[in-house]
Amino acid sequence: MPMITDICKKYLTENIINVSAIPGGNINDTYLVETAAGRYVLQRMQEGMSLSALEYNYNLYSDVFDREKILYPKWMKQQNGSYFFTDLSDEERRSFRMYKYLEGDILSTPLSEGQCYQCGYGLGKLHSVLKTLPAGPRAIYPHLHDISYYYKQYREAPDNIRDHEIEEIIKKTMPEMLSTEHSFISVIHGDAKLSNMLFKDGKVIGFLDLDTVMTGSVPEEIADCIRSCCLSDNSLNKSAASKLIQGYLDASGEDKDIAELIPFSFKKICFELALRYYTDAISGNNHFKEHYPGYRLNRAKELLRLFMQFSF
Predict the structure, then answer these.
(1) CATH fit for domain 113-309, picks 3.90.1200.10, 3.40.50.720, 3.10.310.30, 3.40.190.290
(2) pLDDT tens for residues 178-188?
(3) Distance in angstroms (rounded) separating the CA atoms of residues 277 and 129
(4) Residue 5 CB neighbours (<10 A)
(5) DSSP label of 45
């Protein structure tokens, strides 16, 4: 594979001062590229992603976001006019893209109730804007939030490495999860967590990682945002969650009936993520990175503890 700096030069003409890995990503490899003119982000795409579908979705939302003044990663083109560089010498044919680094305030949990309200308000505004897209997005991850698909993967995993406690929870919980129907379907971000929000002066001004934009369940998206923003020591701050929901309703104008679906949606999201991490751990799949030995199994257990203790 070419050196990362060589790939950067496909997009940049200025001298590159430094390239460093950005830690924390669960899926894609991401690099911060520094030049005298500014900072950029180089991202290696996940294997198997449809580049044509990615570009189609990008063209759908970029004009709308520009009009509504929502910040987002604006992809750069190589000198040959293409957004993506694909390494033809790599057996996996992994592709890269670059965009200018977006400046914003960094927030970390635990958030104040006011900050949670602003997270909900920002998400509500995003959903309102996504409703104005000229067409529906193409599915980049066709099975994202499809719990029947994740259950199938789990059942196909080897039987020799299993955790008895987790197995019992899955056995008891799966029938209810499989029988639940989605509601309030609309275009959503797909991964509306705190680290994918851009802030300035305490307000959400933009979003990152828009590859997951999809048609999906609005209550589940709100619940996933709550999971990311309203936890402290793996326990839910119910008052903060209520503020986030209120912010969402104030910005989106959605029917308040949607709030009644969020408690179950929260449990479903926690269970779904736990199942995915657990399946990765027992099967040896590498959808989520193993940040340290046992990381994915530990994440599954944390999410299931949250699932078991939760009630609004």
Answers:
(1) 3.90.1200.10
(2) 998 888 999 99
(3) 32
(4) 14
(5) P
